[in-house]
Amino acid sequence: MNKLLLFAFIGAAILAGGCGDTKSETTAAAPAAPPSAPTTSPNPTKVEDSITVSGPLIVEHQVDITAQRDGIVASISTEASTRVKAGAVLARLDDRQLTANLEAVRAKTRSIAADLKNWEAEARVLEADYVRAQRLWNEKLIAEEQLQHAQYKAESDQWDIVRVREQLTTSKEEEHSLELELEKTRITAPFNGLVARRYVRAGQGVIKGDRLFWVTAEAPLRLRFTLPEKFVGRLKSGQELPLTSPDVPLEKHMVKIIEVSPVVDPSSGTIEVLVELVGGRGQLRPGMTANVRVISPQ
Fold first, then answer.
1. Residue 157 falls within a domain, yes or no?
2. Angle ∠(197,201,203) on CA atoms, nearest 5
3. Is residue 180 assigned to a domain?
4. DSSP, residue by residue, 209-269
5. Are residues 126 and 169 in the same domain?
6. What would the DSSP string read from start to end of 1-35?
């Protein structure tokens, strides 16, 4: 019985030792996970940012010519789409009454001028009489009262000459005033340009301030726009920028900066920029919409 117990104990011990060795081998056989390689990404390409602004093309000289006085349109010398030179007569108002008034004032001026010459001649006669009276007084041949009479008469005539001269000046100014009014009846072009519109017709009555013609220059073409305040100090006069227009998509143009606002508009936080077309205008015309691309500051 004791021998059987001993053999059972030894067998259990051997079985337990075999199981422990198997567990150890299994644990040693499991390989360790390799460390993961660090992930790297390429540097992104820096793309140049820009802003595109749009607006109508403008010209500096573009005005509505208005009537400077009341009147009737007597004649029209030009039509719309006509190119004119500075000073060219576009239309005339009826000037017959003004012409008659001007001729009357001119006649008055000539009359006063002749009267002035008469007073000046008489003044020389009275001056000679005064000199002769002085000589007679020195020789005690006339009384002192006669000498004073000749003196006062000569002085009085000098004041008459001053009065007539002032009348002549007034008449000349009236003449000049009527000449200016007569000029207002001739409607002229203020600069070289194109008659874009005609608002009146012959025989029509107009009053002061009524529009008669719209005259516009054709060059140089300009564009005025605003940019965010971050552009302050980054745009300079003379800098060139690309310009395109959806109306003529095949044409590419350049504009140069001619004016940059030195201050920021506090209500909108923007600055104003004025650019001018460089080179030929191609098919561009005043009033067309144009786009200008401006590189955004980094």
1. yes
2. 160
3. yes
4. T-EEEEEE---S-EEEEEEEGGGTTT--TT-EEEEE-TTSTT--EEEEEEEE-SS-BTTTT
5. yes
6. -HHHHHHHHHHHHHHHHHHHHHHHHHHHHSPPPPP
Q: What CA–CA distance (Å, rounded) separates 262 from 169?
A: 50
| Range 101-138 burial, b when 16+ CB lie within 10 A, else e | bbeebbebbeebeeebeebeeebeebbeebeebeeebe
Output the domain CATH number for residue 265.
2.40.30.170
Question: Which residue range(s) make up the domain with 288?
Answer: 51-60+218-295
Query: Of 184, 204, 230, which closes a domain?
Result: 184
138 has a pLDDT exceeding 50 = yes
- Site of tokens 């564009």: 223
Q: pTM above 0.90?
A: no
Question: 3-class SS at 129?
Answer: helix
Does residue 1 belong to any structural domain of this protein? no
Per-residue tokens: 58: 């403008």
> What is the amino acid identity at position 62?
Q
Please report where in the chains the tokens 């072009």 appear, as a residue.
189
Model confidence at 28: pLDDT above 50: no
Alpha carbon 35 to its chain's center: 72
pLDDT tens per residue, range 195-254: 999 999 999 999 999 999 999 998 899 999 999 998 988 888 999 999 999 999 999 999
Question: What is the radius of gyration, based on Cα positions, of the chain?
Answer: 51
